[in-house]
Amino acid sequence: MCKTSRLKQFGIAAIALVMGATALASSPADAKRQRYIDAYTAREIAFDTGIVEIREMELDDGIWEIEGWDARHREIELELDARSGGIVKIERD
């Protein structure tokens, strides 16, 4: 086998190794999480909805649950779809 063929085989093997390592680095849980809007975006949507102060914020089963107060210091509970950012439920006291 000539030197050039060995270098090509080594190069192909190296590329395959890097591609395999990259595929293993991201787990199915990471892939699912990447499809969700991040906390910063959920926070911005909450502020656009009228929340001026956030008391608690949690991602639970694909729903951002955000609790806080509006400008008149009334409590607001907001639920956002973590994939689309759409409002699922909003309750004001």
TrEMBL record:
Signal sequence annotation: 1-31
Top-level taxon of the source organism: Bacteria
Keyword Ion transport on entry: no
InterPro entries named in the record: PepSY
Keywords tagged on the record: Signal
Residue ranges constituting the PepSY domain according to the UniProt record: 12-90
Pfam families the UniProt entry points to: PepSY_2
Annotated protein name in UniProt: PepSY domain-containing protein
